[in-house]
Request: fold
Amino acid sequence: MHKESIFQKSRRAWFKKIQQLGLIAVGAWFSPATVFAKPEDAAKAIQEITGGKPVLDGKVKLVIPPLVENGNLVVLKVSVESPMTANDYVKSIHVIAEGNPLPNIFTVYLTPRSGTATITTRVRLADSQTVRAIAQMSNGSFYQGQAETLVTLSACTELV
Amino acid sequence: MSKTSRTSITMPSSAKKGSIIEIRAIAQHDMESGFRYTESGKLIPRDIIRVFTCTYNDVEIFKADFYSGIGANPLIIFTTIATETGVLEFKWSGDNGYEAVNQANITVS
Reply:
């Protein structure tokens, strides 16, 4: 009887310990990365661009290095298949990074006089993530392309 | 960031009519994202270039909106069709009254 009570006591202590560990785990889950956007933010940004219209896959090719050492300067190339004639051209291209504090990276507006729909620029990536490019065609339809990347040193979180 | 800064354009000075030319435009700018903190914990306000436009003989042919996700010293490479001899004007404008203008001539044969 006496022995059992000691066992019970220690078991209770164990439960308490485990509970505390659980609390720490929950805390670790909530505390970090409140600055980073959630995929919902990116979905909202996409919704604002398309106005709820369906986004088809294909036509858009997004090129970023699959492994990035420093997220502060990542060369990003986006190209859209299009004849770029007066009747059929790419109106705009939007690039969205779902892991950045602000998902929108840039928007370009093209005309038939652009000749090709190819843009190269340098962007910041805050985290390993999927980057999307959404193109609006002259007939109002939307196409998207995406690329995944692994970032070892993230942008925007460092102190000055 | 100062009200203006150095900018540079790289593009061919002459081209065949109807050919596609590549234009590289770069501006010297910190592009402070507005998401960084100082060591004392103060948020550094955003200071970026927001709009870049390119006009070809006063007709707008290209426009880009930049957000905080564009890296420092923004570089943008795009293309256009060489239609006529003339002047291409490039304009950057952004936060805190930043404005920069650059021009390039092209001879189309």
